[in-house]
Amino acid sequence: MAEAQESPSLVFLCLNTIADQLLLGDYDDDYVQDIYQLPSELFDSLLPLLTPLALHNLHQSMPLNKCDDCGPLNDKSGTHRKRKRWMNFETAWKMLYETRWPDCDSQSHPTNWLEKRNEAKDEITDEWMQMYWERHLQSCLDAAAEIALLPSFYGSIGVIEIPAALLNYMGYRGCMSKSTCDYSKFSYHCKYFGSYARFLRLPSALCVPEICDLLRISKLESLEIQWIKSKENVDGLCGLLKQNRETLKSIELIHCKFSTSFINDICDSLWIKRLNTHGIQHFAIKTSSFDGSNYYSLPAGLATFLSSGRSLSSLSLCDDHLHQHFVKMVLNILLDTPSSIEALDLSENNITGWLSRFQWSTKGKQLSSGIGKSLQSLRVLNLRNTNLLTEDADCLKFALLNMPKLETLDLSDNPIEDEGIKSMISYFTEMSERPFALIDLKLGNCQLTCEGVSQLLGSLSTWKKPLSSLSVRENDLGSKMGALLGKYLCRGVQSLDIDDIGLGPSGFRGAQEEITGDLKLVYINISKNRGEVETAKFLSKLISCAPGLVAIDAQYTFMPEESFSIICSTLKAMKGKLEHLDLTGNLSCERFADTSVLAELQISGKCNIKINSSHAQAAPYDDDP
Ligand SMILES: *[C@@H]1O[C@H](CO)[C@@H](O)[C@H](O)[C@H]1NC(C)=O
Ligand SMILES: *[C@@H]1O[C@H](CO)[C@@H](O)[C@H](O)[C@H]1NC(C)=O
Ligand SMILES: *[C@@H]1O[C@H](CO)[C@@H](O)[C@H](O)[C@H]1NC(C)=O
Ligand SMILES: CC(=O)N[C@H]1CO[C@H](CO)[C@@H](O)[C@@H]1O
């Protein structure tokens, strides 16, 4: 509600009366027409007074909504007015959304795939209204699930009571008219707001056949489901998938336990007969398990799903206790069909030795014939923590030659050791000659030493187009690495993660001495390297040599007190282009936290300097407190 003035004006009182009537739904068409005839100033002052329900009621009966082909508004001024009205509604919805969920960004839609598609549209989309009701519905789903989870619960999920706090947000008041008394039921919210839901997280407690009826009008594009275990869950899910298969683009199944028939049913539900395929672009099964007896064969439904999905561009089978035969079969399918997979995530599965059992074409160069077994479109490969050993790295080289467009490779947390990385250097060299070269390489915690990484950096430095991003974090590289890294920094890398590699003071000194000229660096993580005061000198040099540097993580670097003043004076001289500087974990710096120095450093108002070790500042994600 707007701030009440000392004595509210007559206009304000009238507008509030209108707002009430809109909320109660207690009006006819003519009444709404009259509201739309109000002069712009009045109409514009009305919108911010409306609760979500009232705004929704008014928005829904907006004559302009259905008016693409109707008379009076089709002239120029009409179109202009239409656009302005629409803008006003958008602003009002945005305000309501941000008031209810101030942590605007933390609702992360895993829909990057979908965003691309939306870019082209330049029409009126009512985006904020859609987002508002979508997230409201998610809150209702979560609230209903809490009740449905109780052991004492049985029966229909539709009649579950929605908590008053959620109803209050909508503008609901205790005694509204008879026709609206269903507000308190979960089914009401599904029925009226289900059509706005594009992305939903469906708790398994609600994954029952009844949900299909409740969400009948939804046109879901993205669905995340957790803890699917029972036949009832699968039936509910399959019904929902069938209903939405024409619109669904993204599915994530997490913490599930699949039997062959479960997975077959799920895949079959996505099949669109008319097109003889499915429309899924992103498919993920994470932290789940497949029935033990079936390690040696791929469920037929999944096989068909993978081989026929023309639009499938991202596949994740992360942390699924996959057996190597399973992975091999998946890869065989992806290789044998003209797949358009761009991102493949097999991380957190033990697949030691699987690469060697695979008949990779060893002549990467001949792949242009098109017949060779290759993952032509693969751009992102995640093999983090897959227990790859030195011997596997040797085979990996051949596998990678079959991925001519690979840009991002994550091999972190695999004990491939120096020998492993050395055998891959020839691959790196060959790749650098290709039009698509690697952009992002992660080798964190691979049991590498200074020797292996020196050779790697030597090879990377000869590339025509340098890597944008490199991580060698958590390898025991030692202080000798410093000078080499300093040189490498001058080669155009934009993001470098050297967290916890044992640089020490002399390593930082070595690095600092090698830095010359303009660096392209944007981000660096130098945490846990115990560089003491040399860390500060290194940072000073870096900040003054890298005009594009935006973020620095430097936790637990054991900097003594004088370091802070070194960093401060550099920052001041650079007029605060930095947006993020994390110096947590150094008690000696903490006492500066309160001083005006900090305020002075935040010149641009952009820089977020963290000094305290507590991470509590990070706002906890809290939906509908
Ligand atoms: C990983 O798989 C290999 C081969 O199947 C096996 O020998 C090894 O014990 C497994 N390691 C772990 C940690 O499970
Ligand atoms: C940088 O390193 C620290 C310390 O290990 C870690 O907590 C942090 O997540 C890293 N930052 C990024 C962006 O990876
Ligand atoms: C650091 O902690 C002190 C005392 O706990 C507090 O007064 C100060 O505001 C904190 N500074 C930052 C930047 O969080
Ligand atoms: C918490 C912490 O690691 N503090 C260190 C900060 O740096 C000083 C000076 O080297 C150390 O003595 C502290 O232990």
From TrEMBL:
The record's section on SUPFAM superfamilies has: RNI-like (SSF52047)
Signal peptide feature range:
none
Q: Which domain of life is it from?
A: Eukaryota
Name under which the protein is recorded: Uncharacterized protein
